[in-house]
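Summary for the steering committee. The consortium agreed at its last meeting that each partner would contribute one worked example illustrating the joint modelling workflow. Our contribution is presented below. We chose a case with several input lines so that the handling of multiple components could be demonstrated. No manual editing was applied between input and output; the record is shown as generated.
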Amino acid sequence: MKQILPLLVGALLTISISAQNKTPDEKDIATIIKKHGIDNSQVMEIASYMTDVLGQRLTGSTGLKNANNWAESKLTEIGMENSHLEAWEGFGRGWDMTHFEMHAKAPTYWPIIAYPKAWSSSTKGTGDVVYLNATTIDELDKYKGKLSGKFVLLEDIREVEEAFEPTAKRHDSESLVKLANATQPIPSQRRRRGGNADAAALRAATWELLETEKPLATLDRSRKGDLGTVFVSGARTAEGNARENDKYVVPQMTLAIEHYNRIFRMLEQDIPVTLTIDSQSNYTNPEGNENNVIAEIPGTDLKDEVVMFGAHYDSWHAGTGATDNGSGSAVMMEAARILIETIKETGIQPRRTLRIALWTGEEQGLFGSRKYVGKHFATAAESGFAVASLKEDQKKVSGYFNMDNGTGKIRGVYLQGNQAVSPIFREWLKPFHEMDASTISLSNTGGTDHLAFDMAGIPGFQFIQEPISYSTKTHHSNMDNFDHLVGDDLKQAATIIAYFIWQTSQRDEQLPRKATDLKYE
Amino acid sequence: MKQILPLLVGALLTISISAQNKTPDEKDIATIIKKHGIDNSQVMEIASYMTDVLGQRLTGSTGLKNANNWAESKLTEIGMENSHLEAWEGFGRGWDMTHFEMHAKAPTYWPIIAYPKAWSSSTKGTGDVVYLNATTIDELDKYKGKLSGKFVLLEDIREVEEAFEPTAKRHDSESLVKLANATQPIPSQRRRRGGNADAAALRAATWELLETEKPLATLDRSRKGDLGTVFVSGARTAEGNARENDKYVVPQMTLAIEHYNRIFRMLEQDIPVTLTIDSQSNYTNPEGNENNVIAEIPGTDLKDEVVMFGAHYDSWHAGTGATDNGSGSAVMMEAARILIETIKETGIQPRRTLRIALWTGEEQGLFGSRKYVGKHFATAAESGFAVASLKEDQKKVSGYFNMDNGTGKIRGVYLQGNQAVSPIFREWLKPFHEMDASTISLSNTGGTDHLAFDMAGIPGFQFIQEPISYSTKTHHSNMDNFDHLVGDDLKQAATIIAYFIWQTSQRDEQLPRKATDLKYE
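What follows is the complete predicted structure of the assembly.
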């Protein structure tokens, strides 16, 4: 045995050298992709323009419209073809925040750190603060006729804990082993919104009261966040959808916890508190349609088949959507750029067509990706997220790669329960073991656009990423800004994803699929 | 040996019991003080009113004036005598922030988290942003005539690091042993303000230019802080003092780092940035005098001697001065309350007079404490912090205890180089070993009011405190708010300090003093 090994290595070496003399082999492709992805990276330039210059990209907003136009041009500029906006319907109106300020006036002045929830109606005025503290529908009665012109606190104090643990983290061997040992995931039940029927009835009655009373604003302090970091997303209504045209939406403000608690503590001490607000916004886009951004690198012998890759491009409005999901969007645009540079350098063309998609409406329910899949690959069920039947073009999509878990580099990939793809991805990760990416997890990840593909029987994947500060500080917060992107991590992610796209394009077979009960139309 | 020990313990036990039958011994006093300080604490109620209700307490501001009046009443209410405001002169005008808002208008709207530096002149308007990037005085020429109506960036980008280490900390045995092993401190040289003569000349020329040009505002991003935490103190001038009446002070704004960097990165990409600001403030108190708050618990047989304890009460303006130094002020007020309750319960009167001082003007140079010491105990040198000679009453102050290092509980005490006091304090800490306070450090701490006493030859001390989030998050920041006070820590601190005051009052001798070259007048 000992004597055989050197001979074998010698033989492999010969093959490798002879391959280099013809066309780049797989190892060379990885090297070339790494050169363009790591040494010549442009991911941070893309991300800076996307977040710093274009800013927030709330679906339906002017910000997203401008960002879509920029992406369409930028994808052409980097060398993609057929770059275009592809419309989808039924989102509802958009919302542009045009001015926001809030201050305490009494007992003493201070400027308040707060943000309106998206789709809040405009509001302006000065008034006192009351705490709406009702545990039953009957208790709501005492607030009737008393909330107009007031600021209404909706929540009790939340205690703030000092950060004796790091708020930013990377995976360690323990957490990776746990992922690697994950068993076949159980199809998740759609989570029902909080609590029991009584609680739901109280909530509905509370919001009906608020919509009747029309306070200056309701105030809350979000479930997490401190020290100036505020987590804020969309406004709610008693019933229906805040995106319906002409619908009045109670102005809903989320305050920095320190400012919320300060107001609450003063009320507890019977100190009257007076605030002033000027929150202005425009409802936009009354026809309610939106666009995804789509572009391609054409394939050759298998050009009717596609490899798709994408990320949601829309964001919430208080930050600039840097880690949610400027990072994923910039990485996917950069992956396309890396592949184009690799094609130029090697002269090797992709076999399948490579198609990028920057989705919109993800934050409100994966709308962009579901509408896209619903148009091209499957017919949606009448209600909910489910798919009823499959279209013929579903067969042409070999796979879809998504990124939407922040700025952290890739430590591996979730198989989304697709065991058959495991040996393939294991092989593809080999050139990136030196970059810490080697874990294969049978587990799935939820809550983002690969699900639209997965539910239509198309292999759709997310990667295992370093958590960094995603869940603790940036995801849906006012501090989701460029400064919390980690450049080296994004370079690594773009490089690995480019390689996965390339390999999916070049293999003879499509990626193996999970069994499905869905039928073709 | 083995047989002797039980006998000895037995003997000690007998003495202890017999002492209990007469008057409370030292151990009992500690127990009673702990009961009032820990079980019946009011420190968080005091701190909440001081920070939440009274708010910022910038020296010279209406906020501090109101806070002084409240403290004067509150000290009477808890049972102190002779509570009064004691004036000191020469501070200069005060400054009340009455309105602040700042927004980006182009290329896209967002509300900016920022604060004016204290004593900034009011400013209102909309304008473009320029980066003042001069490394020599000659290079300033190109900005002449071009800064009026503009926002002027003064600093390069500061890279933001994610928090892979905790931002809040407690001492561990390693850091305490280091403190315990500290050697005799070397008298510190007064630190000279940054750099060489060229740098100083450039700074002066820059501020002269800015005072001539009168931009809408200068913008900086402070040395530390991120994620919505902004560190901001006082405005600067080319020469002289921003507190001089009628002096124009360039409006100087400190921005959240993410917002500052975002603007800077856009300028780097040649994207014009337009901001709008409305920063309004009133200059107050043109006569320029201030007050410390003083109150006493009268002594008995040694009533002409005093034990002093205090903390600076003034704060910066962007937060509510919770850890700097609402914590110290509330703890000292609470220590007084604990002692009064202890006196009521035991019937034992203090021998020396116990005098609390809530100092003002600390943030601008320990003015309140230095002026107080200069009036009663020593004559100040003509310039600088030094003392020229001592007054007779200096002999009557046994010691001064100060607290000004945030919310952390006490782990021990700094001897401030006073070795002779070591065995005394070591004994006094014994009842608090169970509360983690046991370290004696020969080292000194600087930068706060005990120095005024120390320099006049009066034993002045600060305690070793847990760091918590003081230097990383709250000290001089907009997030120095009540929520970052740790209640259990403050209770412990008030309890231990009450006991130290009591022991200083009751011992036959005054506390030993360090040798001094100063002469009595």
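Chain A is about 35% helix and 20% strand. Chain A touches chain B through 61 residues (CB under 8 Å).
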